[in-house]
From TrEMBL:
Keywords: Lyase, NAD. GO terms for molecular function: dTDP-glucose 4,6-dehydratase activity. This is dTDP-glucose 4,6-dehydratase. It is an enzyme of class 4 (lyase). Its EC number is 4.2.1.46. The gene is rfbB. It holds the Pfam family GDP_Man_Dehyd. Residues 9-328 form the NAD(P)-binding domain. Its cofactor is NAD(+).
């Protein structure tokens, strides 16, 4: 790495949000990025194939739980900032196997914070002053809302309901503690549901696009009335760049899209878009493929984000509305058949069998 003063280290950069972030960072900021990623089932180096010959990008395959490997990457690449995406991120998987979430999200974040602290403590005063550790988190740490509740703000008490949310909440508390106790320059973002290119096809939006395209059942959990706030992934990436540049140390910033939609609305809209872009007389109207299946245990009813703090203090607002972002996303999946084929590995097929066979039988 040549321009080490400007290097940032990203964890989990081969995943959905991380890979969008790395691509956009190279395009807009242009300084070097080291991507520390274990390449689990969710990590796909093909997402970053456009950077294969770009000297500003380097992949280090390592586990955030491996203190030695993390220390070696920090000492070799001397980053000016760490942007921490790496996590187990799928709620349904956290219900099947919570242990993996505690390991990666809690132990892994602790290991990264501790190695970052050691590295940062040994920097000279100027480098110490400008160093940043940005912890990427979720709105799910705040729990669930009823229809009339106000949206989650930065002062909403934590009330995580799934093992995923609990593990992210624990990691947020660790990040907070490293700022308060050790003065490590930590920033935290809590964002709503992202959608866009490169999302692993077990999450709602890509799963529904792919199943609709192929005329397969569209499994809607429960009554389909659960509400999420949706943010186009590029907007999340720009929010993270903004917080990294201008955020106040030790603060948390909620990031959202002002786009609350219930799941049935999201699935119906996908059906209509796929009908329009890939009409199929044999399949007919994709809405007929919707199948109500057994609900997710402990399924949070509604998430909503009050993003006034990041707007008022840092000047960030989302730029893509949900209808445009969803159309753009459907088009991306329809135009990237080979990407879809490549991620549909054995691990993905095993998951689909494990998660849906029993639900559909009910
Ligand atoms: P993802 O599951 O698509 O990607 C996770 C990445 O982390 C993968 O590249 C994987 O290989 C890597 N990884 C997993 N375990 C690792 C380990 N032990 N060491 C190193 N790398 C490891 O996740 P995503 O959807 O891109 O989410 C990224 C971050 O953003 C997560 O921290 C998540 O909690 C947060 N977040 C996600 C959303 C969303 O809607 N997807 C919303 C808000 C916040
Ligand atoms: P998901 O993409 O897993 O994100 P999260 O649970 O983190 O919000 O799910 C989004 C919503 O869609 C959530 O309410 C669960 C629901 N859902 C279904 O109805 N069917 C599915 O097959 C999946 C994967 C999710």
């Amino acid at each position: 790495m040549t321009d080490s003063k400007n290097t940032i280290l990203v964890t989990g950069g081969a995943g959905f949000i991380g890979s969008n972030f790395v691509l956009r960072w190279i395009e807009t900021v242009g300084t070097p990025v080291v991507n520390l990623d274990l390449l689990t089932y969710a990590g796909n180096p093909e997402n970053l194939a456009a950077l294969d010959d770009d000297k500003r990008y380097q992949l280090v395959r390592a586990d955030i739980c491996d203190a030695e490997a993390v220390a070696a990457a920090l000492n070799e690449h001397r980053p000016r900032a760490i942007v921490h995406f790496a996590a187990e991120s799928h709620v349904d998987r956290s219900i099947v196997d919570p242990g993996a979430f505690i390991h990666t999200n809690v132990q892994g974040t602790y290991t990264l914070l501790e190695q970052a602290r050691r590295y940062w403590s040994a920097l000279d005063d100027a480098a110490k002053e400008s160093f940043r550790f940005l912890h990427v988190s979720t709105d799910e740490v705040y729990g669930t809302l009823s229809p009339e509740d106000p949206a989650f703000s930065e002062t909403t008490p934590y009330a995580p309901n799934s093992p995923y949310a609990a593990s992210k909440a624990a990691s947020d508390h660790l990040a907070r503690a490293y700022f308060h106790t050790f003065k490590l320059p930590v920033l935290t973002t809590n964002c709503s549901n992202n959608y866009g290119p490169f999302q692993f096809p077990e999450k709602l939006i890509p799963l529904m696009i792919m199943n609709a395209l192929e005329g397969k059942a569209l499994p809607v959990y429960g009554d389909g009335q659960n509400v999420r706030d949706w943010l186009f992934v590029d907007d999340h990436c720009s929010a993270i760049r903004t917080v990294l540049e201008k955020g106040k140390l030790g603060e948390t910033y909620n990031v959202g899209g002002n786009s609350e939609r219930n799941n049935l609305h999201v699935v119906n809209t996908i059906c209509d878009l796929v009908d329009e872009l890939r009409p199929d007389p044999v399949i007919g109207s994709r809405r007929k493929l919707i199948k109500y299946v057994a609900d997710r245990p402990g399924h949070d009813r509604r998430y909503a984000i009050d993003a006034r703090k990041i707007a008022n203090e840092l000047g960030w607002t989302p730029s893509v509305d949900f209808e445009h972002g969803l159309r753009n996303t459907v088009e991306w999946y329809l135009n990237h058949a080979s990407w879809i084929e490549n991620v549909r590995s054995g691990a993905y097929l095993t998951w689909i069998k494990q998660n849906y066979e029993e639900r559909i039988a009910q």
